Each structure stands twice: as C-alpha cells, then as structure tokens.
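Hello again, I could really use a second opinion on something today. I've dropped the whole record in just underneath, so have a look.
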Amino acid sequence: MKQSKLELFVGGFVLLGIAAVIYLTIKLGAGSIVGGDTYVIEARFTNAGGLNAGSSVLVAGVPVGRVEEIRVDEKDYSAIATLRVDSGLRLPTDSMASIKTTGLIGDKFVALAPGADDTWLESGARITMTESAVDLESLIGKMAFGSVETEDSPVETPPNL
C-alpha cells in the first residue's frame, strides 16, 4: 500500500516537471517569460541579409525585444522588419535601427539607438533611419580584388609637369 502511494507521488511529480518544461519552452520560444507587455514597431532596411524572425532586438547591449517578421515592401522592394519591443521602453521618433552581427560571422540582431526627440514612437510606427547589414562577401571581394575598371569608366591622365 505504501509502495503504490509513493509511486503515485513520484509519477505526479514527474508529470508536473514535464508540464513546467513545456511551459518554459513555449514562453522562451515566444520571447517572453510570464507574459510581458509589448508593442510593435517597424524598421525599413535596404538589405536585411541574415536577419531572421526571432532575432534579438537590443538597446545598449540589453535585450528589449525580438524580430517578429521580415517582409518585402512591394513599392520599393526594401525589407520591412517588424519588431516586438517591451512596452516599458519608450523610443524617441528619431531613433535609429541597425543590423549588427555578434562576432565576425555570428547571428544578426537589430540594435536600436534612441534619438533625442521629445515625441515617442507609437505602436505600429516605422523607423526610417536605418543601417543595413554589411555584406561580408562583397566587402571581402572588393578588398581582395580591388575595384575593377570597365571600358566605360573614365581614366585619369596625370597632369603635365
């Protein structure tokens, strides 16, 4: 009789532990623990290379949100990143968004640099002052091979001495 009570207690404890792990997995995957309040802002980039949904949003190195989605604007073919940011963070309207990399070839994240304006970004507002991701492949190619002159490019002649 005592053995079956002990087995029932251990089984309930194991089920409670599994439920706790599932709950934390869902909350961490959504980017929030214990349901924090957030609001949505957008940032327009000419190149969002390597940025993914779920990437971090940082202010001064502190995580303040996540990238919810990235889509292409059909009018000018720029990348629009939807950012979900903690509601306690009030960003001025002249804030700047940059796509940065952790390390040399690490994950991409969005770094927000607050401006100095007296008005605040509202939910659904768009940040237009942005710095796009650096394309390492083209940068290395330019450094390795230099800029190649084409036949149409003007050639400077040295001044006569």
